[in-house]
Predict the 3D structure of the following.
Amino acid sequence: MDIVTVHHLKKYYGKGEKQVRALDGIDLSIEKGKFTAVIGASGSGKTTLLNMIGGMDVPDEGEVIVDGISLRGMKEKELAVFRRRKVGFIHQNFNLVSALTVRENILFPLSLDGASQDKMLFREITEILGLEDRLDAWPDQLSGGGQQRVAVARALISRPAIILADEPTGNLDSKNSQNVMGFLKMSVETYHQTLVMITHNLEIAQMADRVIRIEDGRIFGQEETHAAQF
Ligand SMILES: Nc1ncnc2c1ncn2[C@@H]1O[C@H](COP(=O)(O)OP(=O)(O)OP(=O)(O)O)[C@@H](O)[C@H]1O
């Protein structure tokens, strides 16, 4: 079953000669429960595509359907609710709130939505990610790898159907990258979520079930991988 369907998505910036075709007619389906890696040169449109799937940005043309919900015509408020309930974002720069503790950062999406905390899930996620002893620490007291694990926990805490990760290991050394990837993949498998991840790292892309290559705002190729050799 497909959890994301993208129909002929277009996003252009600017006009005339300077116009940039960030997305130039993308058609794509993403199967539920799978890990899809998105690769491509800098400026090829990867982040723009991820932002459209996550309802962070709206296309000029085309349609995005996530978990049976079309984002077309949604108002900003509806998109915000959609993002909080359906999507977990993980960014390269972690994007943690420095004035909140690790615990508060992880629970932040729930507090925005007025949702109650699933204490078992919180304990499970923080244990899987090795954060149970750091819950009262401030983000800047953790290493880069530790901060990214907090960002992973925050993305998972509301049990979103889909996790969108924009180069989540881009600022980590190889050991921390492997750790974060291992935790992320294990968590996604445990909670039956779908992971879409932008990466420049081909080793990481090989861990995915499927790799999509984007060039000049178009899908240039896609291949199933023989993942699972984690
Ligand atoms: N808000 C914007 N205004 C103008 N141009 C933009 C805007 N956002 C993106 N672009 C342009 O659209 C193109 C695609 O950008 P995008 O960030 O999606 O690429 P990317 O593949 O994610 O690149 P990178 O790997 O460097 O992050 C680029 O040429 C970029 O400069």
Notes: The first helix runs from residue 46 to 53. The mean pLDDT is 91. The two ends are 24 Å apart (CA to CA).
